Amino acid sequence: MSNLSNISSTLTLQGFDLPPESVIPALVLATMGYIIIIFCNLLLLITIILNKNLHEPMYLLLLNLPINDMLGSTALFPHLIKELLWDTRTIQFSTCVTQAFFIHVYATGAVFILTAMAYDRYVAICRPMRYNSIMNNSHLMKIISLVWLTNIIMIAVLFILLLRLPRCRSLLTHTYCDNPSLLQLVCVNTAVNNIYGLITVAVCQVITVGLILFTYLQILIACFKNKGSDSRNKAIQTCTTHLIVFIIFECLGLFTIISYRLTDTSPYLRKFISMVAMILPPTLNPIIYGLRTKEIRTKFLTLFKQRVKP
């Protein structure tokens, strides 16, 4: 009980254990990575907002992706840069919980948003005559509200269950704060937290992966039935690219979750994969879902020319 009452509010992160000569390159890469992610996602965000022709269900759903990516990156990078710049590995417990909360909101939100976008493409390609009646403004707002409210409530419950438990440790065996690493600071039974976490992950995976596989399978079937080779090839290329991005994100996220429960997993591998899961999707998403989309690319170039020319 004395250990529980005297535990410090300051936590220590294990960090990367970088040699001194690697700190400056790592700091430069982290800073440049954060700038690139924010710039590319802001570019996509502003392009969609400023062009009324892009105020369609597909692009309004896409609008949520850069918001979510910037949320996750801002939860991670500023503290990471501070750690490298000042050579400090300490973090306040309240700050750690806040960081972990938004990182989990980002990870879950990314999967939910991609699922909503897959549903929109399914209706557009497989039910084109009913697209406008199905994806009306009211239905669209319900989808967006469901994505964010479900995400926030689910993660909030996860951290309410965490905060009720007393801590007796202050060393986080990870490079940033998340729920599994915070649970390792607890010295009482965490069965309720583990069960809730596993159930939410399982339910989310079944629903999102199931919906995405179903929608893209239906899209591919519809594309092969379509006699127009140009539209078919475009749809197949789009679906394939989106599926690859989703599968990469899923594999990285699931490995991070499972690695906490496998004691023989290399901590360096877990750190590397978890960092890639936080950096790669926010970097690729503006390119895959933004610049590779002809309508957005055209509107961006038009907007750029209007701002550059006197």
Q: What would a concise description of this structure say?
A:
The chain is mainly alpha-helical.
Q: What would you say this structure looks like, in words?
A:
- It is a single chain.
- The protein has a single domain, classed as Up-down Bundle (Rhopdopsin 7-helix transmembrane proteins), CATH 1.20.1070.10.
- Helix content is about 80%, strand content about 5%.
- The protein contains 12 helices and 3 strands, in the order H-E-H-H-H-E-H-H-H-E-H-H-H-H-H.
- The longest helix has about 35 residues.
- The chain has a 3-stranded mixed sheet with strand order 2-1-3.
- Helix 2 packs antiparallel against helix 4, helix 7 runs antiparallel to helix 9 and helix 9 runs antiparallel to helix 10.
- With about 300 residues, the protein is mostly helical.
